[in-house]
Amino acid sequence: MARLAPLALAALALAACAGPARVGRPDPARGGDGDLGERLAERAAALVGERGAFRAGGERFNPDCSGFVQAVYQAEGIPLRRLMALASPRETSGAAAAYQAVRAYGVAFGGGGQWPAPGDLVFFHDTYDRDRDGRADDPFTHVGVVERVRGGTVVFLHRGGRAVVRAALTPGRPDATLAPDGTRLNSPIRDRRPPLRDGATLTGQLFAGYGRIDPARVPRDVARAAER
């Protein structure tokens, strides 16, 4: 068996001890005008490739789609997890609770030519068979963070099945995967195990809407607690 060099052994040891990914400061090299939405998008982009749990503001967040968006928002002082609990205390789906939070403390929108801004949330239906009945009847099962809009395509970040990844959504062409020039239009997003009967798998086919938290509508006591 080949022997590992000391540096390689050290690298393996560090990887084995790696804890939750911390949502740190945005990279100044990425630019942006410094507003809240841009900062949220930058924080989300900085986590591409992360596989484990997330940490922000001294809190730990689960390594799933809702934990990802909660951590990104918490890092900017928006207590999304708390807002989700307040808006929908009995909801067991993180994505569905996030949608209720934007309705209660911001605005939910989508369709009719409305486009999101960086840092907004993007929602999807039926990305997996939540109730295990074999049918596409599970609303708001996935959520991500919008990075930018480019020529009718929304580029967003989300915690997929294995890690945080970048994906594309083109609502105007929901069934198209690639443009003639090879540009990604819609990304596969549905868990195919087990397969659902309608056969839809792309972001455009499962798109549910956008949401934006308005910091001015966050209850003052909740906002103050998040700043501590």
- The CATH homologous superfamily is called endopeptidase domain like (from Nostoc punctiforme)
Q: What is the CA-based Rg, rounded? A: 18 Å
Shape: globular
List low-confidence stretches: 1-18, 25-34
The strand line-up of the biggest sheet is 4-9-5-6-7-8
What is the correct CATH architecture?
Alpha-Beta Complex
Helix and strand layout, with pairings?
Layout: H1 6-16, E1 21-22, H2 36-45, E2 54-56, E3 59-61, H3 65-75, H4 80-87, H5 94-105, E4 106-109, E5 121-124, E6 142-150, E7 153-159, E8 164-169, H6 203-206, E9 207-213, H7 220-227
Parallel strand pairs: 1-2
Antiparallel strand pairs: 2-3, 4-9, 5-6, 5-9, 6-7, 7-8
Helix pairs in contact: 2-3, 4-5
Tell me about this structure:
- The chain has 228 residues and is of the alpha+beta class.
- It has one domain: endopeptidase domain like (from Nostoc punctiforme) (endopeptidase fold (from Nostoc punctiforme), Alpha-Beta Complex).
- It has helices at 6-16, 36-45, 65-75, 80-87, 94-105, 203-206, 220-227, and strands at 21-22, 54-56, 59-61, 106-109, 121-124, 142-150, 153-159, 164-169, 207-213.
- The protein has a six-stranded antiparallel sheet. A three-stranded mixed sheet has the order 1-2-3, with helices on one face.
- Helix 2 (36-45) crosses helix 3 and helix 4 packs across helix 5.
- The chain starts with 5 loop residues before the first helix and ends with a helix.
